[in-house]
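Final report, Chapter 2: Outcomes

The project's central promise was a pipeline that accepts a single protein chain and returns its three-dimensional structure in a standardized token representation, suitable for archiving and comparison. That pipeline is now operational. To close this chapter, we reproduce one record exactly as it appears in the project archive, with the input sequence first and the structure output second.
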Amino acid sequence: MNIIDTIWQFINTYYIDGIKNDTSYNIVDTVTYAIILGISIFGILKLLRKSKIVIDTRFIIAIVPYILAGSSLRVLKDSGFFAPPWKYLFVTPFIYFVIFAVAISVLALCVYLERSGKIRDYHPFFAYFGLAWTIFNLAILLMVDQIKYPVAAAAIFTLGIGITFAIYFISKRINFELLTDKLNISILFAHMLDASSTFIGMDWLGYYEKHVAPSFFIDLAGNYMEHPAIIMYVLKLSVFIPVLYMIDNKFENEREKELIAMMKLAILVLGLSPAVRNTLRILMGV
């Protein structure tokens, strides 16, 4: 076997097979996608700065509908709506490029309309398009499939909201401002929703975890408890609270504040995107 065949076999084993078969991630593609994410954060930040687009809480709120659109689009793929080769566009990492391409195009149009005086503020128009896209995806999903597990989906939201409220209430009582900040607690809610979807999906409905690190800890917890996916709550809290603390306390000047916003947006996407996808899959029994 020559070097070209060896390289191709490596790429096929660690990247292509996972995309074609939509199987669990491995350590190689996980690290690769993490590096791509890190590079993308700085690349997008540079692009937005060059376009003189302010990256703040309003911008993040306007982006949220596109996260929902991406998740609902992924569930359409999971339901079998798309046939090969189109379905591969909606598997990680390609789906992120698809969503980015649409979002940046709509953003450019909305910013142009604002700067040319045709609209007063681009934020709501940008958000409305993403919301309309999400509704369109959900309408198609309801046409091609049917709701099967509404109680399980309701349980996911109940757990996510309840745990987030408890954390917020305790933080308020002890004056822990990190988790009384609206954006930070919203990010934490996204991850509690993700943890809840994993817990309900794996321990009660027979779904499986695709990501490397959560799978390792869930399998480990399985040696000691009947419902090991509950460990996801501990993992999320032990990782993202320190991360948010470091982000909020490390950067100070104005340019660094934009980097903070981009990093928080990335963390929000990492929680909200799988949370919505998992919940929709469970709701539809996909």
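Archive annotation: Residues 147-286 form one domain.
This record, like all others produced under the grant, will remain available to the consortium after the project formally closes.
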